[in-house]
Amino acid sequence: MRLTETVVVEGRDDMSAVLAAVEANVIITHGYGITQQTLDTVRAAYERSGIVVFTDPDHAGRHIRERLAALFPDAKHAYLSERQARKNGDTGVENASPEDILKALLSAGCRASDGLSEACAEHGAENEEYREVTMDDLAALGLAGQTGSAEKRASAGEALGIGNANAGAFLKRLRRLGIGLSELEAACGNARQGSDE
Known about the structure:
The chain has helices at about 10-20, 35-50, 60-70, 80-85, 100-105, 120-125, 135-140, 150-160, 165-175, 180-195, and strands at about 5-10, 25-30, 50-55, 75, 85, 90. By secondary structure, it is α/β, with parallel strands linked by helices. The protein has 2 domains: about 5-105, 3-Layer(aba) Sandwich (Dna Topoisomerase Vi A Subunit, Chain: A, domain 2); about 120-195, no CATH class.
């Protein structure tokens, strides 16, 4: 099942558990010390596709959820019970079964998507200039397969507010958020201008 919304989790293991249950764009907060860059990435997803906050059912997870809820009041929230999220004395999303994760996300009101969400469509998919980005496009823009590609992806991701990832994950993120080739090209141009100043 592919979700329309972006799922916001605390850590890499949580992301792996969510991706074992559903296909979705996932953003990691890296715990409570959320950086401004991560918040910008969450904001971009919030505005494009909507987000669902899916933190651990413990003290730290509740605080992260409260902080994100204050910043993103229309965010959806998925919950696990401590029983569902506990394994070997550890409590976290990463310990839950794929079935419990899927149930929590559906209970939060997440929607299955056969394509781009309405919010994504408003940002590009229905625009006549929209064209889905391919791996060849990433290579042509120097974002994949070349020396310095990682740095260029980081700059473009910052300009777009979607964060950084390896080329394959970056491409999936672009597609899930409805970012087309013209928007990516503009972001690459803006990133180059910023580095030249």
